[in-house]
Amino acid sequence: MTGGGAGGGGAPGGGLFSQPAGWNKDVSALTPSTRSQAIIDALVAMGGWGNGNRLQIDFSFILLEANTSTPRRTITEPAGGYCYGGPDCDTLPLQMPIPLNGNTEGSADYTCDWMNNDCHVLVVERTERKLYELYQATGNASSFTAYGAFVWDLDKQYPDTLRGDQCTSADAAGLPIAALLPTADEVAAGDIPHALRFILPNARMKRQVYVRPATHAGGPSSTNADAPPYGVRFRLKASFDETPFNAAERVVLRALKKYGMILSDGGNIALTFSDDRLSTAKWATLGVTPQSFNGIPPGQFDVVDLGAEVPLTYNCARNP
Q1: Which residues contact 226 (CB under 8 A, 6 or more apart)?
Q2: Tens of pLDDT along 238-284?
Q3: Is residue 19 part of a domain?
Q4: DSSP letters of 245-314?
Q5: 104, 141, 142: which is closest to 122 by C-alpha?
Q6: Global pTM?
Q7: Looking at the domain assignment, is residue 198 inside a domain?
Q8: First-residue to last-residue Cα distance in the chain
Q9: In a domain, 10, yes or no
Q10: Phi, psi values for residue 125, rounded to 5°
């Protein structure tokens, strides 16, 4: 099978990874951080969410499925690639499954639109239990290149520092992108068993630090001591009124109340969901649109599970 959503087959409650991880931690009963209100207030003062303070959804990522029958391609790194020979990435050249019916983020095929997208390719290999994530990936009949390749073991019990402290991933926070993407099939089944991925403009994130479960930070520039740092977890308030929303939208809201959303990268469209081109369920049928949650402001969230800030050094120390 080379298509479809990747909502099940992992942890007992669903999701990709079979072992507990920061993104599938139930945080619904946690007391808000003592810094919660200050962080929320700082974000509001800086303009709130990106894109005109709308909690909008981006559906441009597609989560591809593969198995032993999926064709393998050799992924090479172009000159001046993302990791520049550093330890953050897996070594290239790398053999990985590339589904024939897949595409790069923001493209109809595997051709990278360098000007408008980060050109991620996300592939779940169910047989070998691996997640492959590529950054700035582009391919054609004769070659396939990526600025960074990151392979995750879906059955490994990762430590708090994941692939390694100070190490990035296909996302700037060092997290596996696919593990935080809601799929239409998950929503249709009535449960998103993990935290959601969210992003903010660089100017609204605290510079040079991150908090767990992140292991890295990108290029945030805010010098405000209360600006949200990479890895911060926002949890929708339990009192938030779900009644104006349809059944599928309420599945998303319940996940935001139970697992929250984790700050994973920089950009303008706050939420990232998986494209439904290869899934059984469809977002339009479910009634989930890019604007479904536009009216939810930062003030409806608390900051929870906030540990100590880790100074960013870029000195990646990979875990075994």
Answers
A1: 35, 38, 39, 41, 42, 206
A2: 999 999 999 999 999 999 999 999 999 999 999 999 999 999 999 99
A3: no
A4: S-HHHHHHHHHHHHT-EEEEEESS--EEEE--TTSSS-HHHHT--TTTTTT--GGGEEEES----EE---
A5: 104
A6: 0.94
A7: yes
A8: 31
A9: no
A10: -100, 105
